[in-house]
Amino acid sequence: MKQQPGPTVFELVGIGATAGGCVAVGVGGGYWLGSATGVGTVLTFSGLALGLAAAITATYFKIKRYL
Q1: Cα dihedral value 33, 36, 41, 45, nearest 10
Q2: Measured on CA atoms in the order 15, 18, 21, 25, is the torsion positive or negative?
Q3: Alpha carbons 57 and 12: distance in angstroms, whole number
Q4: What is the pLDDT of residues 13-59, one digit of tens each?
Q5: What residues have CB less than 8 Å from 60, skipping those under 6 apart?
Q6: Which residues of 36-58 are buried (b: 16+ CB within 10 A; e: fewer)?
Q7: What global pTM score does this model have?
Q8: Greatest alpha-carbon span in the chain
Q9: SS3 content of the chain, % helix, strand, coil (to 5)
């Protein structure tokens, strides 16, 4: 069987940027929504959880072909 080459440096940087962006948008959106509604911390942590879930999902789909 022919082994598929691993990801390039640019693909790895893209995965990191995507994951970081997902977490940043989740936390930022949660903070903004929390400060607008007065529920602050709860929505910030909820945004963090959603951002982490999105980052894990995006990372999985980007590396799926190398597994």
Answers
A1: 0
A2: negative
A3: 15
A4: 999 999 999 999 999 999 999 999 988 899 999 999 999 999 999 99
A5: none
A6: eeeeeeebbebbeebbeebbeee
A7: 0.85
A8: 58
A9: 80, 0, 20
What is the chain's length? 67
Closest CA to 55 of 29, 28, 20, 25: 20
Residues 6+ away with beta carbon under 8 Å from 29: 47
Rounded Cα distance between 14 and 23, Å, is 14
Query: What whole-number distance in Å separates Cα of residue 63 and Cα of residue 8?
Result: 11
